Amino acid sequence: MPGRHVHFNEENIFYSPAPSESSTSPTLSESSLPSSTGPTTPPQLREFIPLGPVTINPILAYHPFVFPINYDVSYPPNTASANIRASPFNLDSYRLAEAATSPPIPVLSLQNDLLPWRCDIRASTCFYVTVGDVLTQLYSFLRTPGTREEASGTPYQQVYRKRCSRASSAEAYAEEQRKGLKRVDFLMGRTTFMGLSSTKLGPEAWVLNLQ
Question: Three-class SS of residue 63?
């Protein structure tokens, strides 16, 4: 039956240049963004990042009009579901266990203009990053509390209060208030997952697109 399907395009592919004696491929470690979990791509992991084109899994691929999954990154990843307008699949355990990229790689580093940190996604169940790793570790990253200095911005405080107001009970509301501002509040309400697109900085470096 005909329908709309997400396909890879240039924004979803990183082409790794062939190595030479005088130059190396730039990576996200050259960025000024601090890492969420430490240095970007340790040398022992980079050895397993292939040369040649690296594509993102269609479940995670950016598309400007038809996002691949229905997911608000301010909620736990078990709330994500397939977008039937994009592709007729179920977001089940089999799909979540798929490699996040082709060929598979052991680490991804995500960045977004609204966030002053990188989000490093590392393989947790096998030698490569899975779709489930991306959703689970992104959520954990965004739930990290902000520092006192970071929390001083008035716009962020307004988003924080709005997020707390969504709590399902008075107890949950009080708990969210107690925990304070989190990195997700820096997104200023832009929490709809639109997919990942290439930065052209390296096969592990991808843009986190949100709306």
Answer: coil
pLDDT at 80 over 70: yes
Q: What is the pLDDT of residues 48-76, one digit of tens each?
A: 555 568 999 999 999 888 888 999 999 99
Strand partners, 73: none
Q: Which residue has the higher pLDDT, 26 or 125?
A: 125
Is the CB of residue 122 less than 8 Å from the CB of residue 106? yes
Q: What does the alpha-carbon distance between residue 49 and residue 41 come to, in Å, rounded to a whole number? A: 10
Q: Please return the burial class of 173, using the count of CB atoms within 10 Å of its CB with bins 0-12, 13-18 and 19+.
A: middle
Q: Name the residue type at position 148.
A: R
Q: Which two tokens stand for residue 180?
A: 């304070």
Angle among Cα 39, 78, 165 to the nearest 5 degrees reads 90
Alpha helical stretches, state H, the chain: 43-46, 93-96, 131-142, 154-164, 170-179
Task: Return the structure tokens found at 204.
Answer: 């592990």
SS3 label, residue 37: coil
Amino acid code (one letter) for 105: I
